[in-house]
Amino acid sequence: MSQQPLLAYNQTATPLRTPRAAEYEVIARVTSRLAQAHQQRNENRPELLAALFRNERLWSTLASDVAEPGNSLPVLLRARLFYLYRFTVEHSQRIRAGNGEAGVLIDINRAVMTGLRGQGSDR
C-alpha cells in the first residue's frame, strides 16, 4: 500500500472554532494586552491608551451585535452587555483623564470570558 494515502489520514485537521470560541479568543487577546499595559501604565502611557482604544473598539462591536434585532441572546443579557459597553466607554474616559484604573475593565472582560466558557451563573 502506498504511503501517500496513509499520510493524508495521519494529518491533523485544524479544529473548527465555534463563534463563541472565536469571541473568547478575541476578548482574551484584548484583555491580555490591556492587563500588560495596565501593569506598565507609569512607564508606557501610550501603550495603555492604545489598549484602552482596542478595548473600546471590542465593546463597540459587541454593543452593535447585541443591538441587532436578529440577535438570539436573551433580552436581559443583551441589555447587560450593552450597559457594560457604555460603562467601558465612560470608565475609559476617566482613565485617560487620570481618574480611574483599568483593573475594573480587565475584571469585566474576564467575567465575560468566564460566561463564554459556560461557567457563568446565567448559563
Automatic annotation (TrEMBL):
What keywords sit in the KW lines? Answer: Cell projection, Cilium, Flagellum
The UniProt gene name for this protein comes to flaF
**Entry superkingdom:** Bacteria
Q: What is this protein called?
A: Flagellar biosynthesis regulator FlaF
Record InterPro entries: FlaF (IPR010845)
NCBIfam families documented for this protein: PRK12794.1 (NF009435)
